[in-house]
Amino acid sequence: FKLEAPWKFIKQQYQAKKFLGMGAVGQVIKAKHRASGEVFAIKSLLLQDNESATKSLIRELQTLKHLSGVKNNVHTIRLHRVIVPEDLLPDEEKVIFLVMDYVPNTLIEFLDNSQQFELKEPQVK
User: What does pTM read for this prediction?
Assistant: First the structure.
């Protein structure tokens, strides 16, 4: 797969490994941090010029920040870093990147595989 701009801002620090999905305001890729070798999911979010979308993005970031600060919580995806490109050209789309834990399976895959065993209460919560 080929990543287009504005992904150029993460290519120095991260090596794109796999396209994971696309949403209404961005994409998600699996990427390897070049220095540490750690694997992350990186979500791009296009910044929109409407107040509702901005409020929604701020709520998502606040929630991720709060959940990332909860110690010993293995049931949430942690936000490791927010990358805000500073040297965008005037005609480039405004975007930010969220560097998060990479989870190898989707919820559907987990549920399909879980038919072989009984889910315990902590897995259901």
Answer: 0.73
